[in-house]
Write a structure and sequence with these properties.
Distance between the termini of chain A: 54 Å
Shape of chain A: globular
Number of strands of chain A: 3
CATH superfamily of chain A: Winged helix-like DNA-binding domain superfamily/Winged helix DNA-binding domain
Oligomer: homodimer
Helix content of chain A: 25-40%
CATH topology of chain A: Arc Repressor Mutant, subunit A
Low-confidence stretches of chain A: 1-6, 113-118
Structural class of chain A: alpha+beta
Largest sheet of chain A: 3 strands, antiparallel
Strand order of the largest sheet of chain A: 1-3-2
Order of helices and strands of chain A: HHEHEEHH
CATH architecture of chain A: Orthogonal Bundle
Chain lengths: ~120, ~120
DNA sequence: GAAATTGTTCGAAAATAATCGAACAATAAA
DNA sequence: TTTATTGTTCGATTATTTTCGAACAATTTC
């Protein structure tokens, strides 16, 4: 029997621009940890390994889950890169579907501090 | 024993403008039913009894809870009015704390249809 | 005052979401 | 090709949220 074929884990599914749903985007951004991740991605794509969470004691499976929620809402992309992954903000898609939303959120988001990569 | 004194149920607590938290506001708006309520309030204050939900089969206690989430996030006010209540959008406070956010959300929110009060 | 109206609170049940560790997959490095 | 690195998925557990009905409170109407 063709067994399920979950996904080759490599290319993960991303919703098309047209399928983004406002409420889902708002939900994805309604968590401080996820909001902070998005704030980090504003400057440009970031390797998952480099993407820090405020709470370093968080399990990697949980971190992966946070990224999944953002990805499934269409907020970020998560692409294979070497043996790791690259995360990037879907700014164009978000701006196109929800003009001004991301800017408004980011500009009133608590300063992400650790934006200084000493 | 002075018993708890929950609240005289009349004047409900509202967070001060300065205490509004972005993530909480986003969460409050991340539910379609709550988003639709907010869309109704854009035109001005509405009596609770007049404020319809898409799903009319919803219990009144649930409706009250939806309002509570919006109120506690600082999105709406809920004031006594006669024997009922008046709901209103805290537009000034929201615009002040999160400039552009409400506009962005409302302008990309699904058309509220039932805005026609035949 | 008694009855009707409106809406909140409480407590319990059901549905969602967050979190973790273990197992697995994919690539890179040795 | 073996080992190390990185990150996803699975299954279970816990925490949070939603939903409901019943009880209560406030106000108006009779």
């Amino acid at each position: 029997m063709s067994e399920d074929i979950p996904f080759p884990v490599g290319e993960l599914p991303h919703p098309a621009r047209a399928d983004l749903v406002l409420a889902q985007v708002l939900f994805a951004l309604s968590d401080p940890a996820r909001l902070a991740i998005v704030a980090q991605l504003v400057a440009g794509p970031v390797d998952m390994a480099r993407c820090q969470l405020q709470d370093p004691s968080i399990a990697k499976s949980t971190k992966s889950h946070l990224m999944r929620v953002l990805r499934e809402a269409g907020v970020i992309r998560n692409d294979p890169k070497g043996r790791g992954r690259t995360l990037s903000l879907r700014r164009d898609d978000l701006d196109s579907r929800f003009p001004g939303l991301l800017d408004a959120i980011l500009s009133s988001a608590p300063p992400n501090d650790s934006t200084d990569l000493t």
